[in-house]
Write a structure and sequence with these properties.
Number of domains: 1
CATH superfamily: Vaccinia Virus protein VP39
CATH class: Alpha Beta
CATH architecture: 3-Layer(aba) Sandwich
Number of helices: 7
Radius of gyration: 17 Å
Structural class: alpha/beta
Bound molecules: S-adenosylmethionine
């Protein structure tokens, strides 16, 4: 165990610990996300609340990479919290800066808990009804201090159009699975954010036709 790094190759970790939940995309997108957050977050100690943490793999990687950050993961069910905790206990060196996960439904603001310096959300807006994005923005606005950041990672449309054929096919698949799901138009998210006191930065382009949308609490 001492020589084994659970985050180095998550697929190998899952082979060793088959009870773990694993999202392969997190191993591909974690480094570019961490690099973007490193530019955005304060270099002094700060707290990040993550909504829709999924497996929790982002939480641990970001805490490892961004050493000034205390990361609060969250999910919507007790099974989801347990899955994050399974990864967390494998990384005792990070347990002090990755807090035990808490239950938060983005669609039901205000969320309990203290203010955060930033709120990070990956891959939620298109895999949930629009009401979750509305709730997410309202909830974030109430948990951020002035100057705090809401960072949304994922695929988004621009000017009502898909940004590439991969995203168009992804959207069709999502809508087949659930008619309320689907890629959101960035302008609609920007408008919702502005109406809740969150001012958009220019979007950051990310690999695989994703974006990091950043909103600042005014
Ligand atoms: C595609 S996964 C993304 C997980 C993780 N952020 C990632 O990028 O690997 C979508 C996640 O959103 C969560 N989710 C769905 N509806 C939600 C809601 N209303 N509030 C918070 N989380 C939600 C699901 O439980 C799931 O873990």
């Amino acid at each position: 165990m001492t020589d084994f790094d659970p985050l180095q190759d998550p697929a190998a970790t899952v082979a060793r610990y088959p009870h773990l939940r694993h999202a392969p995309a997190t191993a591909r997108n974690r480094a570019p996300i961490a690099a973007a957050l490193a530019e955005l977050l304060s270099a002094t100690p700060c707290t990040v609340l993550e909504i829709a943490s999924g497996t929790g793999e982002h939480a641990l990687w970001m805490a490892r990479t961004l050493k000034q950050v205390t990361w609060q993961p969250s999910e919507t069910t007790s099974e989801g919290l347990a899955a994050i905790e399974d990864w967390r206990v494998l990384c005792p060196d990070l347990a002090g800066r990755v807090r035990p996960p808490v239950m938060i439904d983005a669609a039901c603001p205000p969320w309990p808990g203290p203010a955060a310096d930033a709120i990070f959300v990956a891959n939620l807006t298109h895999i949930s009804p629009w009401s979750a994005t509305e709730g997410l923005i309202q909830g974030a606005a109430s948990r951020l201090e002035p100057g705090g950041l809401l960072c949304l990672y994922g695929p988004f449309n621009e000017g009502g159009a898909f940004t590439g054929p991969g995203n168009a096919a992804f959207d069709a698949d999502l809508r087949r699975r659930n008619p309320e799901w689907g890629l959101r138009d960035r302008a609609a998210v920007d408008a919702m954010a502005r109406s809740n006191g969150l001012e958009p930065d220019p979007p950051r382009m990310m690999p695989a036709d994703n974006r990091l949308l950043v909103y600042r609490r005014v």
